[in-house]
TrEMBL record, chain A:
Family assignment from sequence similarity: Belongs to the ABC transporter superfamily.
Cross-referenced SMART domains: AAA
Pfam families membership: ABC_tran (PF00005)
Molecular function per GO: ATP binding; ATP hydrolysis activity; branched-chain amino acid transmembrane transporter activity
Protein's UniProt name: ABC-type branched-chain amino acid transport systems ATPase component
Key words of the record: Amino-acid transport, ATP-binding, Nucleotide-binding, Transport
Protein species of origin: Thermobifida fusca TM51
Any single biological process term in GO: L-amino acid transport
InterPro entries xrefs: AAA+_ATPase, ABC_transporter-like_ATP-bd, ABC_transporter-like_CS, BCAA_Transport_ATP-bd_LivF, P-loop_NTPase
Domain ABC transporter positions: 2-233
Automatic annotation (TrEMBL), chain C:
Organism: Thermobifida fusca TM51
Record keyword Transport present: yes
One function term, GO molecular function aspect: transmembrane transporter activity
Transmembrane segments: 12-35, 55-84, 96-116, 136-162, 192-214, 226-254, 266-287
Name under which the protein is recorded: Amino-acid transmembrane lipoprotein ABC transporter
Annotated compartments: Cell membrane
One term under GO cellular component: plasma membrane
TrEMBL record, chain D:
Protein name (Swiss-Prot/TrEMBL): ABC-type branched-chain amino acid transport systems ATPase component
Organism, as annotated: Thermobifida fusca TM51
PANTHER family: CONSERVED COMPONENT OF ABC TRANSPORTER FOR NATURAL AMINO ACIDS-RELATED
The keyword Metal-binding belongs to this UniProt entry's keyword annotation: no
Listed InterPro entries: AAA+_ATPase, ABC_AA/LPS_Transport, ABC_transporter-like_ATP-bd, ABC_transporter-like_CS, BCA_ABC_TP_C, P-loop_NTPase
Length: 238, 366, 295, 258, 314
């Protein structure tokens, strides 16, 4: 269970996140929606210990992890797929994956790696090439696969479908669903709201650093303002 | 002298209470051992001069300035000395690069400078600059008898080419001396200023199998080259220059036993004026003086004699006084000193390292 | 033949010196300009110790390694760590780190100059005595053997560790992007400290062995090696242990050949000329990783 | 936007373009012809060579083979910076803003191309943003962040600066690589509208984007590629209903939609 | 005052010479070229000017001009050779260049005076001349730190490929940087040789490289003012510290360390950010708000949303 409670984060004088709360329980996906600059990435990064938290709390399975160093949080069982891929460009694809499994046993890592290769065959093809030469979408696959490697208890995804072709979006999001089904708590920022809403259990909408909607996915799908903002007029009429 | 202080520094006749001299030194940095030792010699000389009343009631006062190894610092200090009229002269730094920067300033600012060390060519320009360290080339010939006595027939030369003094020795003076004594040079090699390892070059030298090896290297390079020669099995003569002195061979220990070098100074020399100096030095510091101390000592005495001759604290007058003293020469810590174009000449001694300390080689009773 | 052995020995000296520097630079991206001073300082501390108690060689090595480790850890904790914390972008911090290292180096150097007055020091008081063996026409000393074994042994160890251990990979990841590395669960601070400790121990070991071999070193010796080490690492390609081995050997061979066949004056010119030419054809050194950058 | 009428029927022509990296054939015999004042889109699975093709067209990677023509004139041996002066501007798939310039200055950099030697006046004194810069900022909705630094921007905002910078050059041909990645539906809508407006003003555009709905709505013509070569070409509807495209690229959703 | 000026004339001149030397490193650094070739040019310039003055007794401005032109040409040719190199590999190549020049000077026989160097280069160069040159140089460089030129320089440094696609001739800019760096370095070297009347190969060593780099990094690497600040600090610091006696080098090292830690943008950067803080204008801009009309629209939507979802928000 991942819980973010009344989080405040600021950059210098500017408060980018002003009291965001969101939670994800094992087996469930919480989708975070919001306009550009709403503070989604800031929330995830702060939860991960990459940004200092001004006030509020982040709990993993009831245990506070606020203020802990990032590498500890990873060992506690929470991982983040960062925005904009962030693969280790000069390292090979396989080395990237090995690093993803840095906190787990070698056997466990080898096992997961096979699953990742199965999910994204192109990664297997390129396993010995530098990750930086992959295409944008291929790097996104690698970033996603790398996060799986640590067999986390909770996972935060920052726009996992960015730059992916429609077929890939489908396969990534359906694997996100199956990861959740295996009992992992998932918090996901996703601009592809249409697909996101399809797999999400709960929805949180953030605007200018504040939560403006929070509820189950069906409720969000019926909320005309949410639909208009994130799916478009067309979806409303259909 | 007069008791009128203040105005007297620029008036022609008579001496003021104190005469201030700037001593530009390398008290820190890579050559601090030279600065340290010459300062001891300087202090001793000043003490003697002031206590003896050599200049009457007038006291010499040394203002010690650290220029480390920076040319710019040294030049700047010299400029300060020129513009501050209370300084009557400069005791110069030991590095050639600093000295060559100071000389034109001194010439233009008309202030006498006495250098020690600073062996390179461009140091002595014009009338205001003097040097109390004789170029090794001027006395290196004394090694000739040693070569004859040891029946040296073949030799190899190894010198540091990045250093002007050593290059001059290695390329001209030493080969000249060697050949004059009927010795053939089998090899001549060079290393650079920052050469650390002598394995390769010593191997080559040993292959040539000379009776004597001449090592003309920077201070810290000496023990290394000596040890490495010995470790490769060399058992002939090793002949160096003054850089072998001043404790540089200590780390080579036994390996360096028997190394000899012509020197401008040795504390064991029997020359009376040297012994006088050594005695006073030992009394004051409880240790034997090295060449830097002797040179510093002689520099002050040259200056003091010049001042006495001039009977004035005026810079131009002092210069003329020094010139007169130099023309006659005097006996100093380094023995009888004479001057050639403002540059000192000494008789020289052959010094040797016996494995634990420096001794003087007297030929014939070996 | 003897030339070759001598060249390999000189190469091993460079290698021993450069190894620690190369490991820290190629992994956590810290180009430590205080490496030379750490090297010298360790030897100096050992020298003052051996003047009091006659120690055998192994004890001297341990002592040197310990001093090097402490100095290096202190440099990391008190300087580089602060720089990195205030400047998380490694690329931007690079220059700051170089300058911080220069500062640390001058502090250590100044202290050493103060105590030794730049007069060379050596370990003649140690119980270890150099002996030379003669194999045909070739002279080889016991220190020379120790140096050869130590240099190649330690290089092999470093290469193996970086290649096979996950920690080695983690170090490389930190060099690429420290923040993302921490997202993988890598404890950047501890890894950096560990690496610098290892690099410092290597510097200390090198300081002891080189002093034994050369007979004596002076306060400034560390800095003269620095530039050769830098050259060897670049020549081989940053981040590659084989690279630094090959780079050291090539540099040493070139210098030895010039010294013995031509003239020592030209040694550094030829050596650096060679580096220059090699870089023109292999812009990232001999074993350097290609720059990964695409549109 | 100003456009000079050109005699050539196509702004950009690429024939049989190939870019190989060792064994990897990133682009392998792909081509297209882009007439003035049209928006063309390229679709294709991840790693099919779209970005590499754009890099080849902008001369940032060397061609293995092929011909490139701008306004009917071959340019595949010219250095990349010449192209910008000929009116070609582009954005990159990864955001590439200059961290030490503000948003405004980043955009101004785009406009500098029309002022190659840099006016002495702007060196010495005032360096007012030109009309083109103001217009680009305004059209991309960056007015409020114009003085912010790139590191302070959210991802979506940074993408807009990329677009604004390209627009500030007042190009005649604009290449956009995933311009709306990281934007939500309504934000994409805005960008799409902007592109259509620009087309109506005569700007030819070539877009790479994975949002098929947006591509269909925006583009006049679609080209689909896979494994570095052409798979299908034609009107948006034709291409999205092409079986090969559906198979390799479009998900179930689109197949069911179509 | 006059007395002080006369007594410290050497340091005053040295400040300006160090300023030019620092600039010869800073100029390439600003366009992302990590080159120390300027230090080599310093040597080239010093020798050229000294040789011309000693042998042909030419006026100072001719000697300096010739040195500058010569080093600029060498710098340009050098840039052609090292066109493929980048980063620290380039740095190494340029260090090699510097050291080779030093060895050439040592072995240059009569022309360069060998290990002795050259002396007696008496000329009519005045402090005023040095200052005038520096003022002109600073003015010209100041022009590159604003407006379009500044933007281009930033672009070339941060992202050469992007610059190319924006029509900036990256290769030309790099070559220009090498050329200018050569000219600046030579200018410093030539003027130093003429003011000090001597030049020796020992001067052109690794320490000079380190000094130049330290001045730039600690002063500030983005603006001529940073180079000037660095030059002032590192010219005067040693004599200021002389009062600390034996430990002056230790204090010097500590100051460098502290500067490296606490001034990531150099002293200049520190001063600038303090100034901005004083004026209450931090580097940060207002937070991103959506464009005005939409904001109203969105606010309406949000109000609607918040009304509906009261129960939803815990
Ligand atoms: N380093 C920073 N310094 C100052 N302000 C910042 C910084 N990073 C982000 N911001 C500001 O904080 C706000 C929230 O940014 P954030 O990246 O969290 O948005 P987001 O919701 O992830 O948007 P997007 O969908 O575009 O990625 C924005 O207004 C942004 O400009
Ligand atoms: N410099 C390079 N070296 C090796 N392979 C490369 C290089 N550049 C691209 N590739 C490979 O070429 C293929 C095409 O890459 P490209 O970036 O053009 O794909 P793309 O169509 O843009 O994909 P995406 O939609 O994921 O961005 C990819 O498989 C990529 O890994
Ligand atoms: Mg975001
Ligand atoms: Mg792409």
């Amino acid at each position: 269970m991942l819980e973010i409670r009344d989080l405040h984060v600021s950059y210098g004088k500017i408060e980018a996140v002003r009291g965001v709360s969101a939670s994800a329980s094992p087996g469930r996906i919480t989708l975070v929606l919001g306009a550009n600059g709403a503070g989604k990435t800031t929330t995830l990064r702060a939860a991960m210990g990459l940004l200092p938290v001004r006030s509020g709390e982040v709990l993993l399975d009831g245990k506070p992890i606020t203020g802990r160093p990032t590498h500890r949080i990873v060992r506690d069982g929470l991982v983040l797929v960062p925005e904009g891929r962030q693969v280790f460009a000069p390292l090979t694809v396989e080395e990237n994956l090995i690093l993803g499994g840095y906190t787990v046993s070698k056997e466990k890592a080898a096992e997961t790696m096979e699953q990742v290769y199965e999910m994204f065959p192109i990664l297997k093809e390129r396993r010995n090439g530098p990750a930086g030469l992959l295409s944008g979408g291929e790097q996104q696959m690698l970033a996603f696969g790398r996060a799986l490697m640590s067999s986390p208890r909770a996972m935060m995804l920052d726009e996992p479908s960015m730059g992916l072709a429609p077929t890939m979006v489908e396969s990534v999001l359906s694997s996100v669903r199956s990861i959740a089904d295996s009992g992992i708590a998932l918090l996901m920022v996703e601009q592809n709201a249409e697909m996101g809403l399809e797999i999400a259990d709960d929805v949180v909408v953030v605007a200018r650093g504040e939560v403006v909607f929070s509820g189950p996915a069906e409720q969000a799908r019926q909320n005309s303002s949410v639909v208009r903002a994130f799916l478009g007029e067309a979806a409303l009429s259909s | 002298g007069t008791n009128e202080a203040g105005e007297s520094s620029s008036t022609g006749e008579g001496l003021p209470d104190t005469i201030k001299i700037m001593s530009i030194k390398e008290m820190t940095g890579p050559v601090s051992f030279a600065g340290e030792n010459s300062t001891k010699g300087i202090d001793l000389a000043v003490e003697q001069i002031n206590e003896q009343g050599f200049l009457g009631d007038t006291k010499l006062e040394i203002d010690l300035k650290d220029a480390s190894d920076s040319t710019q610092e040294a030049a700047s200090l010299a400029t300060q000395a020129v513009s501050d009229k209370s300084y009557s002269a400069i005791l110069g730094p030991g590095l050639s690069s600093q000295a060559s920067a100071i000389s034109p300033i001194a010439e233009k600012g008309e202030i006498p400078v006495i250098y020690y060390q600073a062996g390179s060519d461009g140091v002595l320009v014009g009338d205001y600059t003097y040097r109390v360290t004789a170029p090794a080339a001027s006395y290196y010939h004394i090694i000739g008898d040693y070569l004859a006595e040891k029946k040296v027939k073949t030799a190899a030369v190894l010198y540091t080419s990045g250093n002007p003094t050593l290059t001059e020795l290695g390329e001209k003076a030493v080969p000249g001396v060697i050949e004059e004594n009927g010795v053939t040079i089998k090899r001549s090699d060079t290393v650079s200023n920052d050469t650390q390892d002598f394995t390769a070059v010593t191997s080559e030298i040993i292959k040539a199998d000379p009776d004597a090896v001449f090592l003309l290297l920077l201070g810290p390079q000496n023990p290394r080259a000596v040890s490495q020669l010995k470790q490769k099995g060399y058992d002939g003569e090793i002949i160096g220059m003054t850089t072998m002195g001043a404790g540089n061979l200590e780390t080579a220990g036994e390996d360096a036993a028997g190394v000899v070098w012509p020197s401008n100074f040795s504390a064991r020399s029997e020359v009376p004026s040297t012994q006088e100096f050594v005695k006073a030095y030992e009394e004051k510091y409880g240790e034997l003086p090295n060449n830097y101390a002797a040179e510093g000592y002689d520099a002050v005495w040259l200056l003091a004699r010049g001042i006495k001759e001039a009977n004035s604290a005026d810079r131009v007058a002092i210069r003329e006084g020094i010139a007169k003293v130099a023309a006659e020469g005097f006996d100093g810590a380094q023995g009888p000193l004479s001057f050639e174009n403002n540059d000192v000449r000494v008789e020289g001694v052959i010094a040797s390292w016996n494995g634990s300390e420096e001794v003087v080689v007297t030929l014939g009773d070996d | 033949m003897e030339i070759l052995i001598n060249a390999v020995t000189l190469g091993s000296l460079y290698l021993l010196f450069a190894l620690g520097m190369s490991v820290a630079w190629g992994t956590i991206g810290i180009l430590n300009f205080a490496h030379g001073s750490t090297f010298m300082f360790s030897a100096m501390v050992a020298y003052y110790t051996v003047q009091m108690v006659a120690l055998p060689m192994w004890a001297m090595i341990l002592l040197g390694a310990a001093v090097g480790m402490v100095l290096s850890v202190l440099t990391q904790a008190l300087i580089f760590n602060f720089i990195l914390r205030r400047n998380p972008d490694l690329l931007k911090a690079e220059m700051q780190i170089v300058v911080g290292g220069i500062g640390a180096a001058s502090v250590l150097l100044a202290i050493a100059q103060h105590y030794t007055k730049s007069v060379p020091f050596g370990f003649s008081a140690s119980t270890f005595k150099t002996t030379t063996y003669q194999l045909g026409a070739i002279h080889i000393s016991n220190v020379q053997l120790v140096i050869l074994v130590a240099a190649f042994g330690l290089a092999g160890l470093a290469a193996w560790w970086l290649k096979s251990a996950r920690a080695g990979l983690a170090l490389r990841a930190i060099g690429v992007n420290p923040e993302v590395a921490s997202l993988m669960g890598v404890d950047r601070g501890r890894m950096a400290l560990g690496t610098m400790a290892a690099a410092g121990a290597l510097a200390g070991t090198a300081g002891i062995l080189l002093t034994y071999y050369l007979g004596s070193i002076a306060a400034e010796t560390g800095d003269s090696f620095l530039i050769s080490a830098f050259a060897a690492i670049i020549l081989g390609g940053i981040g590659s242990v084989i690279g630094v081995v090959v780079g050291s050997m090539i540099l040493a061979l070139a210098e030895t050949l010039v010294v013995t066949q031509l003239s020592g004056t030209w040694a550094s010119a030829v050596a650096f000329g060679l580096i220059f030419v090699v870089l023109l054809f292999l812009p990232r050194g001999i074993f350097g990783r290609k720059e990964v950058r695409r549109t | 936007m100003t456009t000079t009428e050109t005699a050539a029927p196509y702004v950009l022509e690429a024939e049989d373009v190939a870019v190989h990296y060792g064994g990897i054939k990133a682009v392998d015999g792909f081509g297209l012809r882009l007439p003035p004042g049209k928006i063309y889109g390229i679709l294709g699975p991840n790693g099919s060579g779209k970005s590499t093709f754009l890099a080849a067209v902008t001369r940032l990677v060397p061609l293995t083979r092929g011909r490139l023509l701008l306004d009917g004139k071959e340019y595949h041996s010219e250095p990349p910076m010449k192209l910008a002066r000929k009116g070609l501007a582009r954005t990159f798939q990864t955001v590439r803003l200059l961290p030490e310039l503000t948003v405004l200055q980043n955009v101004q950099l785009g406009a500098d191309i029309n002022d190659p030697r840099g006016r002495l006046r702007s060196w010495l004194g005032r360096d007012r943003p030109s009309e083109a810069v103001e217009e680009a900022i305004e059209r991309t909705g960056l007015g409020d962040v114009r003085n912010a630094w790139p590191t302070e921007l959210s991802y979506g905002m940074a993408r807009r600066v990329e677009i604004a910078r390209a627009l500030a050059a007042r190009p005649r041909l604009l290449l956009l690589d995933e311009p709306t990645a990281g934007m939500n539906h309504s934000e994409r809508q805005e960008v799409s509208e902007l592109m259509q407006k620009l087309r109506d003003e005569g700007l030819a555009q070539l877009i790479v984007e994975h949002d098929v709905q947006m591509m269909v709505d925006t583009c006049d013509h679609l080209v689909a590629m896979n494994f570095g070569s052409l798979v299908a070409e034609g009107s948006p509807q034709e291409v999205v209903s092409h079986p090969a495209v559906q198979e390799a690229y479009l998900g179930k959703r689109w197949r069911s939609h179509a | 005052m006059i007395g002080w000026y006369e007594a410290n004339i050497v340091l005053i001149e040295a400040t300006f010479l160090n300023f030019l030397l620092a600039l010869s490193i800073q100029v390439p650094l600003r366009v992302g070229v990590f080159s120390f070739a300027g230090v080599g040019s310093y040597g080239l310039g010093a020798y050229t000017a000294a040789i011309l003055t000693i042998r042909y007794d030419v006026p100072a401005f001719v000697a300096i001009g010739a040195a500058v032109v010569f080093a600029a040409v060498v710098g340009y040719l050098f840039s052609l050779i090292v066109a493929r190199l980048n980063g620290l590999y380039l740095a190494m190549a340029t260090i090699a260049f510097v050291l080779i020049i030093s060895v050439l000077a040592t072995n240059g026989g009569e022309l360069t005076g060998g290990a002795n160097g050259l002396y007696g280069a008496l000329s009519d160069l005045t402090t005023g001349g040095v200052v005038a040159v520096c003022v002109v140089v600073a003015f010209l460089l100041a022009l590159t730190e604003r407006g379009p030129l500044r933007r281009r320089i930033e672009a070339v440094r941060e992202d050469p490929e992007l610059s190319m696609s924006m029509g900036i001739g990256v290769v030309t800019v790099r070559q220009l940087a090498f050329t200018v760096s050569g000219a600046l370095g030579a200018c410093a070297g030539a003027m130093n040789a003429l003011l000090r009347t001597t030049v020796s190969p020992e001067e052109i060593n690794f320490h000079l490289i380190v000094l130049a780099l330290t001045m730039v990094i600690i002063g500030g690497s983005r603006s001529w003012m940073g180079a000037f600040i660095g030059a002032v600090i590192f010219t005067w610091l040693p004599s200021m510290l002389a009062t600390t006696g034996r430990w002056q080098d230790v204090v010097y090292g500590l100051i460098i360390i502290l500067a490296a830690i606490f001034m990531p943008t150099g002293l200049l950067g520190l001063v600038q950010s303090l100034y901005q803080k004083l004026r209450g204008r931090s580097r940060t801009a207002a937070p991103a708000e959506p464009p005005a009309e939409e904001a109203v629209e969105e606010r309406a939507m949000l109000q609607a949303l918040s009304g509906e979802s009261k129960e939803g928000v815990r």
